[in-house]
Amino acid sequence: MSENYAATVDARVLPVPQKHPTIFRAFDGLSVGETMLLVNDHDPKPLYYTFAAERTGEFEWRYLEAGPEVWQVSIRRIAASTGQQAPSEGHSCGGGHHAHHEHHEHHGHQHAAHAGSPTQILKDEHTLILQALDGLERKLIALEAGAAPDRTYFEKAVKFIRTFADDCHHGKEEDLLFKTMVDRGFPLQGGPIAVMLSEHETGRAYVHQMAEAAAGIGQDPAAAGKIVRNGRAYIQLLRPHIDKENMILYPMADNMLSSEDQAYLGEAFEHFETEKIGADVHEAMMTLQEELKAGA
Questions:
Q1: Could you say which of 202, 213, 230, 231 has the lowest number of CB atoms within 10 Å?
Q2: Locations of Basic residues compositional bias (predicted)?
Q3: First to last CA, the chain
């Protein structure tokens, strides 16, 4: 069945930094009810997460062809823009933030020259992680105020943090970005990378304690207090951790890595997403995040 498209973007012929900005400009030019066609040489699933986070409720995404060499996606505008989003600069696992929105939007504009770069992808992922922290914080406040412990919510929150924030996001940092920086002469010990790695490990310990406490809800009377202590510690660790990466480490990476390094990391991120994490896992994490939003 043929369809009339208001715009067509063949991402295969675009330089990496121009892909996402071009696609979003095309989408933002659509009227409600109009459809654009996206053509790509790999599954654009990471782009879907950008749309889900930054154009929430505005689009309908439908695969027309799914590889192995060509992917075609129909993207239809189903609602007008809220006018609150800045144009997307590239994405992988996610984006969008609430309490820290203005702060991180400022830094997104500051580094707009690196649109679609590996560090921009990681910054976009930070926004989804920050959204999850906002919801977790609201739940902790309710728990402190005497609400009954919501075991299902906290187990889902732990799953999201472990899979999305740690396996996906920290995995790309540790296995790819940090290693590439070290290969180019950036110090592994005694510098920002060492601090980030240490904080990753500290965060994992807090999440482990939260997971144990969530499993004990209904049996361990101290479970709620344990969730509050470790949940707050994790939030207090991760928010400044994200700021340090966005404002210090990522700009350092952008300044030191060559265009070839950037292109390598872009491809490596895509491979990591599809081969090590898996598209089905990412889709499940986006669904889980919506459930966490509703539950918070």
A1: 202
A2: 97-112
A3: 42
- pLDDT at site 83: 56
**Mean pLDDT in consecutive groups of 10 residues from the start of the chain, 296 residues:** 82 82 91 94 79 82 90 93 50 40 35 60 90 93 92 94 93 96 90 93 96 94 95 96 93 91 90 78 78 80
Instruction: Give me the residue spans of the domains in the chain.
Output: 7-77, 101-295
CATH superfamily of 7-77: TusA-like domain (3.30.110.40)
Half-sphere exposure for 82 (CA within 13 Å, toward CB): 10
Kindly give the interhelix angle for 118-144 and 45-54, rounded to the nearest 10 degrees: 50
Beta strands in 16-154 (DSSP E): 35-40, 59-66, 71-77
CA distances from 107 to 2, 233, 243, 244 (A): 42, 25, 10, 12
Q: Which of 60, 114, 106, 59 is nearest to 86 (CA)?
A: 106
pTM of the model: 0.63
**What's the half-sphere exposure (Cβ side, CA atoms, 13 Å) at 140?**
20
